[in-house]
Each structure stands twice: as C-alpha cells, then as structure tokens.
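Page 42, continued from yesterday. The earlier attempt failed because a stray header line got pasted into the input along with the sequence. Redoing it now with the clean sequence only.
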Amino acid sequence: MTWNVVVFDKPEESKKYQEWVSREDCKDGFVLNVDRPQSIEDYPKLHSAKCPFISNSEKNYVSKRYYKVCSLDRNELERWSLESVDGPRKAPTPCTCL
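This time it went through. Structure tokens are written below.
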C-alpha cells in the first residue's frame, strides 16, 4: 500500500522534520510521535503540527527512541499507525492539542 505520509525515523533527519512542521503548507497537518520500543502505554501519540510538545523543543525531535510520521491527513496517520507501527496494533492516542 502507498501511504500519503512522510516518515522521519533517523536522528539525522531532525532538521528535515523541523522544516516539515515549519512549512506554511503543513501548519494544518498532523504528526504521529512513535516510541521505538513500543513501551509507552499512550503511544503512538497524535499531534497537530502546531503542537508545542513536538515542534518547539529540541529534545522532542527525531531521536534513537522516538520517530515522527507526518501527514496533512489525520485519518491517513491513524490508519498508518494501525498497519505500520511495530508491536501491538492500536489506534494513536490524541494529544490535548487536538
């Protein structure tokens, strides 16, 4: 299946992720924050691209522990989460920004 998402899953892609959430045409988009070990109960977490939790703090970019999946389509990210995240399949938990 072809997904209409952009995956930033390597720490060296943090700058590209920051550029994506900063782009004017992506301001109304969404970001799925995924923890690699799949050990956090309320993850993956779905955010607005404008959410300060995932767009304003250097520590909340792409890392060895977390990666980001971005899309302009919330439903697309929710489906992607259910079908593509390693580990148990579960719908993403919405952040309070949504």
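Notes: The CA atoms of residues 56 and 72 lie 19 Å apart.
Reminder to self: strip header lines before submitting.
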